[in-house]
Amino acid sequence: MMAANQVLPSTASVTADGHLSIGGCDLVALADEFGTPLVVYDEQHLRATAAEFVRAYAAADRAAEVIYASKAYFGLAALQLLREEGLSVDVASGGELYAVLAAGFAPKRIYLHGNNKTAHEVEDALDAGVGTVIIDGFDEIALIERAAAGRGIVQRVMVRVTPGIDPATHAAIATGQVDSKFGFSLAGDAQRGVAAIRASAHLQLVGLHAHLGSQLFDLSVFGPTADVLADFAAEVGPEDIEAVDLGGGLGVAYVQEHDPPAIAAFAAAQADALRSAFGARGLAIPRLLCEPGRAMVGRSGVTLYRVGGIKPIPGIRTYASVDGGMSDLLRPMLYGAVYEPVLASRAAAAPDRTYRIVGKHCESGDILVAEARLPELVVGDVICLPATGAYGVSMASNYNGQPRPAVVFAAGGTARVVTRRETYADILGRDLA
Ligand SMILES: Cc1ncc(COP(=O)(O)O)c(C=O)c1O
Fold this sequence. Notes:
Elements (H helix, E strand, L loop, with lengths): L12 E2 L5 E3 L2 E2 H8 L3 E5 H18 L4 E5 L6 H9 L3 E4 L2 H9 L7 E3 L6 H10 L3 E4 L2 H13 L4 E8 L21 E2 L3 H10 L4 E7 L12 H15 L6 E3 L17 H18 L6 E4 L3 H4 L3 E13 L3 E6 L8 H5 L6 E2 L9 E6 L8 E8 L7 E4 L20 E6 L2 E6 L4 H5 L5
This protein binds pyridoxal-5'-phosphate (PLP).
């Protein structure tokens, strides 16, 4: 048996051999079979999370739309699964657009984001028939209008604004403040942006967008955000503000102490905030849109690493080196993200030692977990880092020539490789020398 664990996927258990298992698959056996680092998704957990989002938002607002933020993880198998569960999808680049089209998303259900959309990206999106483009700044109004006019179409667009609300999260993942590269400020820019869009024969304004930031735990931010948006709608005229997209942001538990709100509570807080803010000003209540990324895929994924070296430094600390690191999980290095590893090889053993879990890359900052509590480690052990399903693989690199990891979906005791491990030849495959 293992203690209740809210960072592991819901099917996590311990085998008779004391190995951690997910989706009925022994993780040590998966590491042996497929190699490490290995990303394993609990397919049942992923599907259940998507269904829970759809249910929760439908209960909060019958017309709501759940739009998966594909940047969190855009592996084809996951995208196909999330499409089957009835989600829409957002993309922030031509590459993500390519992936979601390949996964079979209906173009009308695709939302195009980005603070610097290239002309190519806009043209590809409009050629594909993307449903909605979120306009991020003045310079792209003309770009999108030209592309729409050239195709003789009227493109649905939303305006992204920075509501000036501090979401109490890490500065690197806060986006709703005025001092941001994203969106129009409400001190004049957004008003002029809306006017320019309304003056265009090829753009149709359908709503407002505001993403406050990520890893949000505090639901009280949505009241003031909705007030700001409703004031803005009242100021510019509400007639075409049919929808308000409050972005992503629902936090996940990366460590046991994290206590994120339930999906239903998050959805209800957003819907209630819109209802009361727009209602109080006598405005029609806009349809609620949301764009969850990490909360959709984060907890269903884990990463497995093999311990290759243990270095005690008396009086200081003990380092345990694993065979991945910043090339497959950049978040700890990028913005101090924390994780809580489990020893997959002896999952029921008491975590009575402290290790610094470091990667194999040529950077002292390649630290996956600064202070990990684990049982005594031996070389060859398999460590599982839970809640790595979001912004792990999607931020992976080939630093030090490291092939990006394979991805496996585990369900009902069967594991299937959905992304093969990169090879050295893949890494050099684009070089023309
Ligand atoms: C516009 C937008 N929507 C949605 C998301 C997804 O955020 P999260 O993964 O925190 O849910 C992001 C994250 O960067 C974003 O910028």
